[in-house]
Design brief:
By secondary structure, this protein is mainly α. The chain has one domain: Na+/H+ antiporter like fold (Up-down Bundle). 77% of the residues lie in helices and 0% in strands. Helix 9 runs antiparallel to helix 10 and helix 10 packs across helix 12. The model has no long low-confidence stretch (mean pLDDT 87).
Amino acid sequence: MDFNVGLFELLLLVSALVAMLVRRLHMPYSVGLVIAGISLSFLASARFPDIPLNKDFIYNALLPPLIFEAAFHMGWPEVRKDFAVVQTLAVLGVLLSAGVTAMGMHILLHWEWISGLLFGTLIAATDPVSVLATFREAGVAGRFRRLMEAESLFNDGTAAAAFRVLLAFVGGTHLNAIDVFKISGVVILGSVFCGLLIGNIVLSLLHRTDDHLVEVTFAMIAAYGSFLLAENLHLSGVLATLIAGLVMARRDASNPMTRKGREAVETVLEYTVFAANSFIFLFIGIQQAQRQYDTVWRAIGIAVVIVMLGRAVAVYPCCMLFSRSSRRIEPRHQHVLFWGGMRGALALALAMGLPPGVPRREEIVTVCFAVVAFSVFVQGTTMTALLRRLRIV
């Protein structure tokens, strides 16, 4: 079936019906969408081979508004107080998680080092969409919620930058430690510059209008423009869009966005994120039903355990570094950070963007889908119970 207007409308209809149903059943929206996707794949007379669930569609079409919307609402003045904690989790934590995962896949499953490192890096990026939705429904707010959201945003940028360095190895480039630091520095600084450039250009244009529809248009240009500019320069579109969202979100006198314009931007972004997440989780369900797991069950089971171990190594030691400071994180909040480190859109986009020559490419993609499914069905459905158990709600 082609991804035409009819299919587009069908998926939107399914998304709306699922949203209504899960509210009545008190279950996570992402879980309902994945189940709906699996059901669609089994019930349809023709399968969905032509749905564009590939790296370009997820990465270039669906990911920018998700990143931009989260940055736009993040509350930078408050997050800045915890910036050292956020960066420790997002940089050191991602590297530790990727290293532990790569080592486990190499030792226990005998994967090639490059395959283990690629898988470890792409799966280290967290996407707590379901967790934050649960937080909103449960009324969790304050510093801990901001920490979790900020960490997930910044670790996406770290994972994307590290993944690009590893792809250089796959392409046959011989790199030493200095070269790796150079490439990483160029990617990070260049991406930040792209985000600042597009964000400030859009802000300067906003000075010339008070039309809320034009303001919405400029906001979407900032989201997609920063992303595409960075990607075309072989930088990190994720990090560039994150910075552009922070620039656009400024609530001081230097931001010319009108009150009506900000409300309109927030409404449009809210719906865009709803649609993007709906497509992503529906596609996950459709793909889950079509993939063959017969030969990789053992790899999936081991990968889930190793990925969770990697997340534990990313959270608890990093939080321990701040145990004696005013920025300490309570043990019960550390447990939620660990269990709430779910995987989603970015991991899938990076996995499906692996070059054909990567060893075990199809196995990496299949295992990645399975780990994401574990996140949705196990971590997502038990988060509310964990919050109650720890007396956070």
